[in-house]
Amino acid sequence: MKAIVLADGDAPDRAALDSAWPGWADAVEVVIAADGGARHADGLQLAIDTWVGDGDSITADALVFAAEALDVPLTAADRRRLQDAYLRLGPWPDAADALRSLRSAGVRVTALANFSPAMLEANVRAAGFTDLFDDLVSTDLERTYKPAPAAYQLGVDRLRLRKQDILFVAFGGWDAAGARAFGFPTYWVNRSGQPAEELGVRADRTSRDLAGVLDYVLGHR
Which of 114, 67, 128, 110 is closest to 86 using CA atoms? Predict the structure, then answer.
């Protein structure tokens, strides 16, 4: 069996490999993404078979569990197709304009996500948002996940600001509650109109879309 392991770090481009080893891709039977290496798959024109070592593998395991729990057949090809979709999740329609407005106003914008670094970077690149974020922070850096306090602390450490000076904007109610309990001023973009989580804390502000975030942030500068 011939396999290739995509690991984090730099990787040669497809053209360079084709020139050095003509036909190499035809000999590869298994592609393994490990510790952030999934981000190289697109450039090398490879489909990932197995994910190990970080949030990528947890996503794969969760997908298998969900399929089994729902008694839904899941072939290896189906699993690869669904896992690849996690690298290209479509942005909300108002996201691009909202991010551009914040950037134009001089607001620093950082993503703090439970995605692996590879998943986070791939999604931002696929959406065309690479130049709209100042930083991309994966909770994998601490081998933890929101809503653990250590995950939110990553935002404080990367921005080098006091937590009370950082507005945390959440999509999930659980994330809004976790961020507020940590001490962030919190805005919940409750797009589906869900009731607040009964966790003893509430977001400071909420709205159904990012227009409310813009009004709140730009109106307080």
Answer: 114
**Cβ(211)–Cβ(200) below 8 Å:** no
Domains and their CATH numbers in the chain? 3-85 (no CATH), 95-218 (3.40.50.1000)
pTM: predicted TM-score of the whole model, two decimal places: 0.72
> Burial letters for 74-92: b for 16+ Cβ neighbours within 10 Å, e otherwise?
eeeeebbeebeebbeeeee
CA 201 – CA 196 distance, rounded (Å): 9
* Sheet of 186-189, strands arranged across: 168-170, 186-189, 205-207
Helix (H, G, I), strand (E, B) or coil at 91: coil
Q: 47 and 80 in contact (C-beta within 8 Å)?
A: yes
Splitting the chain (221 residues) into consecutive groups of 10 residues, what average pLDDT does each group show?
A: 68 82 82 68 75 62 81 83 83 96 96 89 94 94 88 96 97 95 97 90 96 92 58
Please state, in angstroms and rounded to a whole number, the distance separating the CA atoms of residues 62 and 68: 10
Contact status, residue 149 vs residue 168, Cβ threshold 8 Å = no
